Amino acid sequence: MKMGKIAVTPNNDKAASHSKDENLATNTIKKNVKPKYGDAAFLEYTRLIVNHPNYFGMPDPFGEKGEIQWEAPSNRASGKFKHTHQRRYEWWKNKARSIGIDPDTEKAWISKTAKLIHPLGVKPCKKCGKEMELSYSYPNEHFFSRVRKLNYIDETFELSQNEHIVDLLTRLDDRFGERIYLDLPHLFSTKSITIPDISSNLEAWIEYLKEQYIPQESRMLSPGAMANPPDRFDGFHSFNRCCRSIADKGRTKENLKSYVTDRRVFEYWVDGDWVAADRLMGQVRTNNIFINEECLNAGNGGLHPTPCQADHIGPISLGFSHRPQFQLLCKSCNSAKNNRMYLSDIISLLEAENEGHTVISWFAEEVWNRLKHSVDDSEKALRLSKILRDNRHTYMNLLKKIMDEGYYTFLASLLHLEVANYNPIFEGLCISNHLTHYKSLKKIKRESKYAAVQKTRRIRIAFTSLNDYHRKENRNAFIVSNELSEKFFSEAMDNLKSLSEITSCLDEKISGIISENSDSKNEFRTIITDLRE
Which of 437, 482, 403, 511 is nearest to 524 (CA)? Predict the structure, then answer.
């Protein structure tokens, strides 16, 4: 588990020493007690909290068998610990007074106390182990309801309540550039919070959010875990924001995470100038050149409402590049296309190749080159789509094997981090036959910390999404394997092993961060400078 800077609330040395001695003795008793539930990171966290001096004197920390009594429900009707809830409530009152909070006069005194005495400011989820901040750092439905009203936002732009607001802002900047800064004051303002004049750049807004906005606990944001004293030892719900909707009774709802995860992993592990592609996708929703353009299929009859969405001609889920050219499809046509190709898509991709564009990622290039000229009808286009799908799934399987062996530095070299060093400027944007075009693409060298922010986010999400992808079972795809492919893969692994003396230190750093299932933004940022592009 990631360890943050530990703050200790006022306690005398004797109390802290007493806490340590008492718990060390108790830990000897409970050493061989098998935990009943909880992710490993969460169980480690509970041990840290129970032994921390900030919680010295908490009533009934251990059960009769030496197990940690993390929960103290108010509805215990009998037993030795039926009064634990009330006893802990009194403990929280005394703790509040000791740090200058009056429980008799202050509103929400108990949750304020829990936040102030928490030594880490983050906690892992009991169910999945994902570490989230306890501060109000995550967008909620109030915020998203405003975001969805922006005329350039549609369902192709992922909105997740588990994403840190700084990460969301970074993605908005990636996609929509300066346009988003005109709307940020409206998105974040509340009756009690007036947004000051802030420079229209990412660094200024990140600083404002971290230093001023988040500490005010705006109604537009929510914490990674809700305060819940005295029911929980640390004063917070055991299930973080990431799992409350699927773990708590009465909170179950349809889970669309699988689709989001799949799209992420495809986007992050294909080739292409992802910075320029993201920026042009944003232009489709904000630039008048594209807003009024009809759907590609409008001439076929039926309803095709505008504005249209930016569709990858070659789906990235099949291994095509995430590159700055899109065809415009209405919402229904885009959804219907999904990850299949039509004959018209094959023709467009071949035309793009003839113009000198690289449309396919390296891992799918051989399959594409062998079969692309044999497609002359929609049935063959669909057949090629399925073959590329299986090839992609095989590739993802190989990436996971490489990751399991610990060769993270090599994998990072596939993420095209270098394109974040430049700010893309499109010149001569236009639309022709429902396809986006531009005369030239200028790349201006970035001189700010923004490039590091982009790289940090990309490497972090790429690895975590690859892990998530392989948690899903029963995929409608095959892993292609034969004796020859196994031979080549074995040789590749031998080559990686021969380089491990050079990369082992960085491999271990990345591995350690990923294994913690945490939002380890700061740790990832420290390794960016070590990666050789």
Answer: 511
Residue pair 441/426 in contact (Cβ under 8 Å)? The answer is yes
Specify the 3-state DSSP secondary structure of 301.
coil
Is the pLDDT confidence value at 2 over 80? no
Q: Do the strands 131-133 and 136-139 form a parallel or antiparallel pair, or are they unpaired? A: unpaired
Q: Which amino acid type is present at position 334? A: N
Work out whether the CA dihedral 271, 158, 264, 139 comes out positive or negative. positive
Cβ(286)–Cβ(310) below 8 Å: no
Q: Coil, helix or strand for 525?
A: helix
- Residue 344 has a CB neighbour count (10 Å cut-off) of 14
Q: How do residues 192-216 score in pLDDT, each as one tens digit?
A: 899 999 999 999 999 999 999 999 9
| Rounded average pLDDT over 157-170 | 92
Q: Could you tell me the residue ranges of all domains in the chain?
A: 13-128, 135-223, 258-528
Average of pLDDT values for 158-185? 93
> What residues contact residue 166 under an 8 Å CB cut-off, 6+ apart?
137, 206, 209, 210, 521
CA distances from 135 to 21, 41, 234, 290, 451 (A): 32, 20, 15, 40, 26
Alpha-carbon distance values, 62 to 75, 79, 319 (Å): 19, 14, 53
DSSP E strands in 125-248: the ranges are: 131-133, 136-139, 221-223
CB 179 within 8 A of CB 335: no
Q: What is the DSSP letter of 373?
A: G
What is the dihedral sign for C-alpha 466, 469, 470, 476?
negative
Please classify residue 285 by burial: count the beta carbons closer than 10 Å to its beta carbon, then call 0-12 exposed, 13-18 middle and 19+ buried: buried
Residue from 423, 460, 432, 420 nearest 265 by CA: 460
Cis upstream peptide for 230 (omega within 30°) = yes
Q: The whole model's pTM is what?
A: 0.67
Could you give the C-alpha distances from 37 to 40, 42, 68, 238, in angstroms and in order?
9, 10, 11, 11
Give residue-wise pLDDT tens across range 401-425. 999 898 999 999 999 999 999 999 9
